Each structure stands twice: as C-alpha cells, then as structure tokens.
C-alpha cells in the first residue's frame, strides 16, 4: 500500500521529509512516496533511505500566489499534480498528504480525484484538544467552504460522524452546531435552518447549539460550522494557546523564586505544551472525495507529518471512503422517499 506525500510547496519541506522518514520506519507495511525536488529530498535524508520510501521527482510547485484552477491545468510537473496523478493512477495508493496551498489542494482533489456521488461540497475536518485528557473535538468544516448552505452543513455532520467513528471507534459521537448562543433559537437564518435539518436526522446524536467558548469543554465530539467561522475558531484557539504558553514561560523565568517553582512544575508544563500543540493531531482530512486526502499546515513539522500519515492509515483500515459512499447513498434514498 502506498501513501503519497507532497512536500513541494510547504513552508518547511525538510521537516516534512524527515517526518515521512520517521513514518516509513514505523509503518513498514506501507510505501511512502515523497513527491518534490528529488535532489533536495535526497540531501535532506542524507544517510541510508528506508527501503519502503520512494522519491518521485517533481521540479515545479503551485504557490499561494497561483490561481488554483489555472495552476492545476498549466503546471503538470508540479508536486501537487504529480502527487494526485500517482494517487489516481495506483490502485494500491490509499491516500495523499500535502502541505501546499490549501486552495490548490482542495481544487485538485475536487477536480482530479472527484467528489463522491451525492456529496454537495467536500469539507475539511480537523481536531483540537479539549479539557478532557486524551479527548479531541472535530471541527467540520474548518476552511474548505466559506459560504455554505444549510444542506451542506447538514451533510458535513454526516461525513464528520463517520470520520470520528472510524478514527476513534466512537459509536455515537455528540454533535454540536457552532452558534452565538446555546438556545435552540439562537443564530442567523442559516444556523436556524441547519439546526432544523440536524434535528430531523435521527441517525445523528445532535445535542444542539454550542458557543465557541465551550468548544474545548470536552462535551462534544464534533462541532459543525461553515468553513469561515470554523477556520476562525481553530486559528483563534491556536493563537491563544501560543500566547498562554509564551506568557507562562515568561512568568516562570521572571524571578529567582519563579525559576525554582518552575523546576517543580517542569513535567506538568511540558505535558500541557504537548497537549496544546496542534501538530500532534495531524492535518485536516478533506472528506467527500473518492480517495483519502489530508491537508496539513504549510508549517507542518516532523510530528504533524507523521501524525497525518498515521491518520491516513487509520482511515484506510476503517474504510472511511466506503462508509461515506454508503452514507451518501442512504441519505439520497431518504431524501427521495421524503419528496
């Protein structure tokens, strides 16, 4: 089985390469295909390359300044286009990881890999830590669709439900709808219409609206949102976590007494730092296309690269694509029966 890793247009290609090497060493039953500048990849690896790691040379990249649709057509030698062609052209290629331009990755996956039948809009699903140890919350959509209709959001819930169930074995994930208040009637017209659709779906464990300040409470497994608000939510959390850890470090070094106290707190503080590090949870899965595609941060490092590859393997083992296909087929039948 192959996992394709596009390192061409990310901010830290060397860190992605080293993360892929770590993954290849651990997941020896899988072949990791690194797509990008071959000379750069070889020089980064340096020593002996793992036997299950393959390099595919792609001299060009699609940057954030490129228009995604045009670049997909006009840059066939870009790392992203090469990676998608490898994904499509190999029956044993189970998934693609990319740290490149979000717009290009989503456009390429939608146009070249293709949407699953019945999916209105593919969406990005990512994870954040919560107040409960070892429990994550999935935010869907976290950036793919910045202006979604209620029926799109309702479908995001169906796909996220399958995703969380597959990855963590949660049989009936609790789903909340991001809104400005917890009461059923709160929100704009889209939120109210989405609330009604989610309430009607008896296959989902929809527990109502959720305010952003309770997103990390641990009371929810999934938070449904349009891509604009979802992206603002996760980046606000990431920024807040960085600020808190920075100020905590500053306080611990502010005086001799504080430094002594810091020695006793060192283990707990490092544990908190690891918990708040979004890299540990891997990239965002692009759900709704015919193969597994994961978009990781442009600043992805060794940890997030390896975690993303681990998540691709989990999704494959739990047949996430077939689950979404079956779910979309059942939803289409239900909608037809209700007409």
The description of the largest β-sheet is: 11 strands, mixed
- Give me the side-by-side strand order of the main sheet: 3-2-1-4-11-10-5-6-9-7-8
Q: Tell me the number of helical segments per DSSP (H or I, 4 or more residues long).
A: 11
What amount of the residues lies in strands?
15-25%
> Mean pLDDT, rounded to whole units?
89
- Termini separation (Å)? 43 Å
What is the string of SSEs from the N terminus onward? EHEHEHHEHEEHEHEEHHEEHH
* Rg over CA atoms: 21 Å
The helicity comes to: 40-55%
Report low-confidence residues grouped into runs of 5 or more.
none
Outline = globular
**Chain oligomer state:** single chain
Number of DSSP-assigned strands = 11
Class of secondary structure makeup: alpha/beta
Molecular structure report:
The chain is of the alpha/beta class. The protein has 11 helices and 11 strands. The protein has helices at about 15-25, 40-45, 70-75, 80-90, 100-115, 150-170, 190-200, 225-250, 255-275, 300-315, 320-339, and strands at about 1-5, 30-35, 55, 95-100, 125-130, 135-140, 175-180, 205-210, 220-225, 285, 290-295. Strand 1 (about 1-5), helix 1 and strand 2 form a beta-alpha-beta unit. The relative contact order is 0.16.
């Amino acid at each position: 089985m192959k996992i394709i890793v596009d390192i061409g247009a990310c901010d830290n290609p060397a860190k992605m390469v080293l993360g892929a090497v770590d993954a290849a060493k651990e997941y020896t039953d899988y072949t990791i295909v690194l797509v990008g500048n071959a000379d750069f990849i070889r020089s980064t690896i340096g020593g002996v390359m793992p036997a299950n790691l393959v390099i595919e040379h792609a001299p060009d990249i699609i940057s954030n300044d490129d228009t995604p649709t045009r670049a997909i057509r006009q840059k066939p030698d870009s790392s992203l286009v090469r990676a998608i062609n490898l994904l499509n052209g190999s029956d044993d290629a189970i998934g693609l990881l990319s740290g490149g331009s979000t717009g290009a990755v989503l456009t390429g996956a939608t146009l070249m890999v293709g949407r699953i039948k019945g999916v209105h809009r593919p969406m990005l699903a990512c994870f954040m830590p919560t107040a409960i140890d070892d429990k994550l919350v999935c935010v869907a959509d976290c950036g793919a669709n910045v202006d979604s209709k209620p029926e799109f959001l309702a479908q995001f819930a169906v796909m996220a439900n399958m995703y969380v169930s597959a990855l963590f074995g949660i049989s009936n994930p609790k789903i909340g709808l991001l809104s400005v208040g917890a009461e059923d009637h709160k929100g704009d017209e889209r939120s109210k219409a989405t609330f009604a659709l989610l309430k009607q779906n008896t296959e989902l464990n929809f527990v109502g609206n959720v305010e952003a300040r309770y997103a990390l409470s641990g009371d929810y497994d999934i938070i449904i949102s349009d891509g604009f608000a979802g992206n603002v939510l996760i980046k606000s959390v990431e920024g807040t976590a960085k600020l808190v850890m920075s100020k905590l470090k500053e306080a611990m070094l502010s005086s001799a007494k504080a430094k002594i106290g810091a020695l006793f707190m060192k283990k707990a503080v490092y544990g908190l730092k690891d918990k708040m590090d979004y890299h540990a949870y891997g990239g965002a899965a692009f759900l709704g296309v015919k193969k597994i595609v994961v978009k990781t941060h442009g600043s992805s490092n060794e940890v997030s690269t390896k975690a993303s590859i681990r998540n691709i393997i989990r999704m494959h083992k739990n047949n996430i694509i077939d689950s979404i296909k079956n779910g979309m087929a059942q939803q289409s039948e239900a909608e037809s029966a209700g007409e």
